[in-house]
Amino acid sequence: MTSNVLAGQEEMSRCFCWRSSTEGSTACSSLLLATAASLAVLAMAAPVYLLGLGLASLASLANGVNPFSSGVFADPAIWIPLFGTSGLAGLMLLVATSRKTVIAFSFNSETRQLSYVETAPLRKLRTTVVPFESIRAVNPTVLTSYATAGYLSVITRVPGQDEKSLWLGNDIPVESLQAHCAWLSRYLGDRVQPLLRQDC
Question: Judging by DSSP bridges, how do beta strands 196-197 and 135-142 pair with one another?
Answer without folding.
Answer: parallel
